[in-house]
Amino acid sequence: MKKKVLAMFLAAGMAASLVACGGSSSTGNETKAEAKTEEKTESKAEEKSGDSGDKSKIRVCVAYSGNLGDKSYNDSCNEGSQKAVADFGIELKNLEGTTPDEWKANLLSACEDGYDLVICSSSNFQEYLQEYAPEYPDVKFAIIDTTVDAANVQSISFAQNQGSFLAGAAAAMFTEKTDIDGVNGDAIIGWVGGMDIPVLHDFYVGYEQGAKYINPDIQILQAFAGTWNDPLKGKELTLAQYEQGADIVMNVASGTGSGILEAATDAGKYAIGVDLNQDNDQPGHVLTSMVKRVDTACYLTIKSVVEGTFQGGSTSYLTVADGGVSLTDFAVIKEALGDKFPQDIVDKVAELEKKIVSGEIVVENYEGFGPSAK
Amino acid sequence: MTFSKIFNASLIYSTFRTATPIIYAALCAAITQQADILNIGTEGIMLFGAFMAVAVSYLTGSWALGVLVAMLGGLCIAMVMAVSHLKFRSDICAIGMGVNMFAVAITKFLLNAWLKQSGTFADPKIIAIPKVHIKAFEKMGFLNDTFNDWTITEWFVILLVIILWFVFYKTVWGLRIRAVGRMAQAAQTAGINVNSMKYQAIAISGLVGGLAGAHLSLGYSAMFVENMTNARGFMGVAAMYFGGAHPIFTALGCLFFGFTDSIGARLQAYGVPSQLVLLMPYVATILVLAISMATKKAMENKRKSSLITAA
To answer: Is there a contact between B181 and B53 (Cβ–Cβ < 8 Å)?
Structure first.
């Protein structure tokens, strides 16, 4: 037994040394980066080249909470930065991480590596950025989905509550369409989130309000998987909600969400996608997707740095009116359901969208979110 | 009111469905444990199996081939562990952790380099393990809700638990492997080839571990996601400890995990804070391990005292 305990310690030591290796390799990068900037300044001094040469050397780092390939939030962010690579020829580095200590380490190494712009892709980074942004005044930072109050940080938030309001309204109408296969008579809809963080509550507040706007007596089942990358957990939570009478479940769970959509197909029920257009991930079982233009946010931030218009300390808030959040056009489900497709949902959603834009409907925010949030 | 929505017939299947991958993992660990080898590498074997199953099913369109290759893949990794532990005398825990890290990295690499995907790999061309649909149950409400449309591997795990119980406790081979596990020297004196028995145990464990992974990626779902095992292998090892490597008690331990998980999923929907619910399986693990250890200790003390009085 003693031997086993010893072995466990050895294994832990091995893991720790691996982390240490990771750290040292990033310092290796750092020195390389320094060498590069030196070279750059030298060549600049010799050739006295114009601004155009300078632009192509802009280095951007994006730190993710979770992995790429989630076909959702992170991929959307990556789409935006890849577009910026194509348009502006910037140098891009992606840092993926699934645990808080990885996020912190990734952010720190990005700070140390001397990037022109470091984008923190989600609110999971808020605490760390608050800590490090003042320590690296020369680095420009951007954070999506939350606000960090520092002179060199640009914060970009979305009115996910407005988009979710539309999704909630669509779900509440859909759950009444008992002529569609798999839809039961109960006015119950579901909602499955990834980690229990404030942004997701902003989603939920809007979803609930939207559903209740259509049917005040509707029941909404809520669950959190507690992770961004366990689709099997997402699937289990979704199946549990279907078994409890829900017939449509909204996915707000990044990588965990692929399991939520799969559950819809397995159970012959329905789901609502999130962040990217996920209508085609499980065709015929995804009613619509609440698209959040993280890609646009990412692209515009990089563009602002390239063009020298970056404004630290600012907060932008993208709403339904700006096209920052929206629902997809229901085209995939329309084709799958054929004659049974409830056109009135599309019309109602369009009507509600107009009302939100005009201010006739005010969608509530979760505490700490909204256009005036600081 | 909501009570019937939480405790209903579908909870039975949901418990079993959540528990099945853990049962496979726990059996994988139990086989080597009988020969006194702690298989920490269960997680890695499982993850590698999950990847191979999806890759082969995608490329060939045959789930059976996918499962087979997953089992062979598990076997290969297990043999690496066996050779380094038994031949080169490396510590089994260290090599086990190494296998876990290797599996995370190699599956990620193969997913990128071979299948040209990143993160999540879901495709209609991945053929899942079919479900067993029993026509006769259709009209019977309870049986239909509870036992219809299980995947083949979900039925098979019950069979596997019974088979392993029989092999361990009713056959000569089982007696030998337990003898090797209890006291290798005595077994050797009795003429049992200890090394060969240990190799066999690890090999079978690898096959079962690969099957665990195949069930996870082709039975429970039809996709592969980086690190999709998410510590289910470790939960299996914990359940194996709980059951003292006895297949049936081990499976019961897994079902208990599955039960707390399923109850949690249902409770969350009714406003119980998610943090509390997500904590439940772990609290349950600690409780169960504490209770099982305490009773074990009490039994040992009793045995000791009876020895003293006998003398």
So the answer is: no
Looking at this predicted complex, what is its ipTM? Answer: 0.87
Question: Is residue A50 exposed (0-12), middle (13-18) or buried (19+ Cβ within 10 Å)?
Answer: exposed
* Cβ contact A67–B118 (<8 Å): yes
Decide the pairing of beta strands A188-193 and A59-63: unpaired
Give yes or no for a contact between B223 and B115, defined as CB atoms under 8 angstroms apart: no
Q: Look at chain B and report how many structural domains it folds into.
A: 1
Window from A212-216, A314-318, B86-90 with minimum mean pLDDT: A314-318
* One-letter amino acid for residue B59 of the chain: L
**Nearest CA to CA, how far is A196 from chain B (Å)?**
7
Residues A97-135: pLDDT tens digits?
888 899 999 999 999 988 999 999 988 999 999 999 999
Per the CB < 8 Å rule, is B230 touching A227?
Answer: yes
CB contact under 8 A, B97 and A14: yes
Report the half-sphere exposure of A97 (CA within 13 A, side-chain side): 24
**Residues on chain B bordering chain A, Cβ-to-Cβ distance under 8 angstroms:** 5-6, 8, 10, 14, 17-18, 21, 38, 40, 91-94, 96-98, 101, 117-122, 216, 220-223, 225-228, 230, 261-262, 265-266, 268-271, 274-275, 278
CATH number of the CATH domain containing B157: 1.10.3470
* Residues of chain B found within 8 Å of residue A10, distances taken between Cβ atoms: 91, 93-94
Instruction: Tell me the per-residue pLDDT of A351-362, one tens digit each, with 9 for 90 and over.
Output: 999 999 999 999
For the segment(s) A160-292+320-358, the CATH number from 3.40.190.10, 3.90.340.10, 3.40.50.2300, 1.10.530.10 is 3.40.50.2300
Domain residues for the domain of B48 are 3-310
The shortest CB-CB distance from B120 to any of A71, A226, A243 is to A71
pTM of this structure: 0.83
SS (H, E, C) chain A: CHHHHHHHHHHHHHHHHHHHHHHHHHHHHHHHHHHHHHHHHHHHHHHCCCHHHHHCCCEEEEECCECCCCCCHHHHHHHHHHHHHHHHCCEEEEECECCHHHHHHHHHHHHHCCCCEEEECCHHHHHHHHHHHHHCCCCEEEEECCCCCCCCEEEEEECHHHHHHHHHHHHHHHCCCCCCCCCCCCCEEEEEECCCCHHHHHHHHHHHHHHHHHCCCCEEEEEECCCCCCHHHHHHHHHHHHHCCCCEEEEECHHHHHHHHHHHHHHCCEEEEEECCCCCCCCCCEEEEEEECHHHHHHHHHHHHHCCCCCCCCEEEECCCCCCEEECCCHHHHHHHHHHCCHHHHHHHHHHHHHHHHCCCCCCCCCCCCCCCC
* Domain ranges (residues) in chain A: 160-292+320-358
